Amino acid sequence: MTDSPRTRDPGAVSIALDALRQMIVTGDIPPGTELSQVKLAETIGVSTTPLREALSRLEAEGLVEARRNRRPRVPPFDPEDLDSVYCHRVLLESLAISLTVPQMTDDDIAALGADLRTMRGAKTAPAWDGAHASFHLGLVARCSPPLRSQIAGFMARGDRYRRMSVRGDDPAGRRTGDLEHEAILEACAERDAREAALLLARHLTRSALTLMAHLAPDTDPVSVRSALQMVMGGAD
Question: Which residues contact 63 (CB under 8 A, 6 or more apart)?
Fold first, then answer.
């Protein structure tokens, strides 16, 4: 595809980035798939120039794997990476929420509550996913932009693993998650930063253990467990 005024626009990178991230996270592009820049550019409707930039950014996020003299690919399932992703999430998000909670406004709390109501009433996976992401990003909304950016990247990588593990609806797991989210919100509403950080760390750890049990039951997520112990020890 030749460059047109539209595809040379910097906004084309954002279009390609959002589309590719969505296709990878949702599993439309399965783990291990080699990526053809030409075909992807045609599918998304951009030129190969912004497509290459989008692939480079997704490589930095861990959603694309560059290989010497070979096409880039979506990384195959790696239990060590899952352990690492959630280890980072536990540490970074517990720090970020402890920085955010003291600065939260009543409007922030109301927005988090609205996200939870949307999640409970969601009839489709995309509706739930959007509200879920909004809730978790809202918990860390008032930390520094670089920290938020790192967290968003690890969230995207974690979502890829979460979607790999989904095998139909899981009402029991959804109810457990709802209760954990509600407890986190209550701690935020009370402006209890330490409790919010502990609850979030435990919630993320449980999520990681559940994913590992589904995807790699013979693997013990040592890093995640150690991260939780660090957060809990720091709260003493």
Answer: 20, 21, 24, 25, 74, 75, 156, 157, 160
Residues 132/60, Cβ–Cβ less than 8 Å: no
pLDDT tens track for 181-199: 999 999 999 999 999 999 9
- Residue 151 and residue 146: Cα distance in Å, rounded? 9
d(CA 100, CA 147): 12
For tokens 């009433």, name the residue: 121
Q: Which region holds residue 20: left if phi is over 0, alpha if psi is between -120 and 50, else beta?
A: alpha
Intra-chain end-to-end CA distance of the chain, in Å: 59
In contact, 181 and 139? CB cutoff 8 Å: no
Q: How many CA atoms lie within 13 A of 31 on its CB side?
A: 14
| Residue at 67: amino acid letter | R
Residue 98 has pLDDT above 90, yes or no: yes
pTM, entire model: 0.80
